[in-house]
Amino acid sequence: MARLPFARSQVTQVFGPRDFPQDPFHKGIDFGSGVSVGLAVPVASAGIVIGSGQSAAINFWKEVDHGGGWTTRYHMLGSSAGPGIGDRVSEGQTIGFIGPKFGVSTGVHLHFEVHNKNQSRPGYGSAVDPLTNINNIPSPGVPSPEEEISMIRIQSPGRGSALIGPGFFRPLRNAEEIEQSTPVILRHVNGNDRQFDIWRALAVGG
Ligand SMILES: [Zn+2]
User: Fold this and answer.
1) How far is the CA of 154 from the centre of ligand 1 (A)?
2) Which of 31, 42, 80, 162 could be disulfide-bonded to 110 (CB atoms 3.0-4.6 Å)?
3) In terms of residue numbers, what domain contains 46?
4) Around Cβ 155, how many Cβ atoms within 10 Å?
């Protein structure tokens, strides 16, 4: 399940039209309450970094692809520190750090956007309201950092592949999911179907 980088109560500017000639269509939300320069920004969901840069309007920025046409963007970062283009990120991983008040902005904040490439509206393009769409963003089959501690991947001829950890069992449904799991596992086990079933029972108590 995807999550907002910060709490809803920290939002100081919502999505939508606003009285601000430089940028009348606010394509994201601003988290400007309870944030400070250098604060780590957690990524909304697992994915791959597909964009990173700097501009005179939004300072340093990054974009993460979550699959299914969904991406999230993080503007007003203080530098390019953190994951770069092509890096896989897990939900909650630090994507960057909040930068100082920049350009025409009224204060230190994170500007956060959610895009769905299958949607387009005048003034907003593919940007949609993060507050009402955050739960629509897919969570690709990469465990969260808390789950990564003791993950093992088991594979057997009749059962396929799965990630197993304490109280955790997740089948890996295709080659992409298997490949995505590689960076987060302690080790890979090739077993037979009986071993697979025993491991599954040990993991989930059934
Ligand atoms: Zn903004």
Assistant:
1) 44
2) 31
3) 8-136
4) 15
| Of 201 and 80, the one with more pLDDT | 80
Report every protein residue that has its C-beta within 5 angstroms of ion ligand 1: 30, 111
Kindly state whether residues 104 and 31 are assigned to the same domain: yes
In tens, the pLDDT along 116-152 reads 999 999 999 999 999 999 999 988 654 445 444 567 8
Assess if residue 47 is contained within a domain.
yes
57 CA to middle of ligand 1, Å? 11
Expressed in angstroms and rounded, the spacing between residue 83 Cα and the centre of ligand 1 is 22
Out of 136, 158, 173, pick the residue that ends a domain. Answer: 136
Which pTM value belongs to this model?
A: 0.69
Each residue's pLDDT tens digit, 160-195: 999 887 677 889 989 888 888 887 787 888 889 998
Burial 117-141 (b: 16+ CB within 10 A, else e): eeeeeeebebbbbbeebbeebebbb
